[in-house]
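Q: What would this chain look like folded?
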Amino acid sequence: MSVLRAEMTGQRTTGRREVPQSMVERMTTIMEAFTSPSARLSLEDVARVTGLPRSTAHRIMNQLVGLHWIQHTPAGYSLGSRALGLGTGAASHTELREAAAEDLRELHLQTGLVVHLAVLDGSDVRYLDKVGGRYASKVPTRVGDRRPAHCTGLGKAMLATVPAEDVDGLLGGQLRRMTRHSIGDVGLLHQELTRVRARRGAALDRGECHLELGCVAAAVPGADGPLGAVSLVGDPSVNFERLVPLVLSVARGISSRMDRRRSSRSRHADSPSSSGWSSDTLDRLVAVGSEGWL
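A: My prediction, written as structure tokens:
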């Protein structure tokens, strides 16, 4: 990967890499380590490719994660939504919304319930889409809102797809309770995630995030972890168990559609002209960095 990066930037590979000195140079070097939109790197990978000390790379990457230039998932670090919006050609959250849009509308029409699409963003879920017609106003969520992952069906469905140690790393030791029904203990959360797995990945929520609401949710599976999750939301009296097969089917259908899109994009990405960071993109990144946001 370091050889490929050197070819991208026109540098000659040597036995020892010169460590960049300025913060802007270090930030740019880290961003360049992600040589394709789908690249997944560990902290050790980034330190090795960039030549930065591990502690330095970790500190800068934490700041980049906080600003959404990079995202951190159980599968490793990858380009974040802000970087993907700079014309890298990557499948972004917008692509997930597009892939799911028809299914979300159909789910609402079939059930009369409010439908959510969300992604895991650190210890939270972030809502990408909401479909509910005139019933949507009864559910106090908006696109862009965040909720603690452990308090939502969406979050529990996605957390159930990752190893237990990664769940602990994402959530930390303290679990904030949204209602009296929220899970406030890590041990109890792991028991709940075991039940989610036993339902083939369907998560239920009855008043854990909002007292007057319940939901059923399923993760949209991806090769490196959950791409997102879909939920049906309504009154707690709804028989959500009956809707488990429907939500699971829709989530897997969205996953298949995303796989086809990414396979098509990967074929195009094999061309040298379509890979890497353009000079315009790097100029815009440096311009932001030079304003002192790190």
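The longest strand covers residues 114-121.
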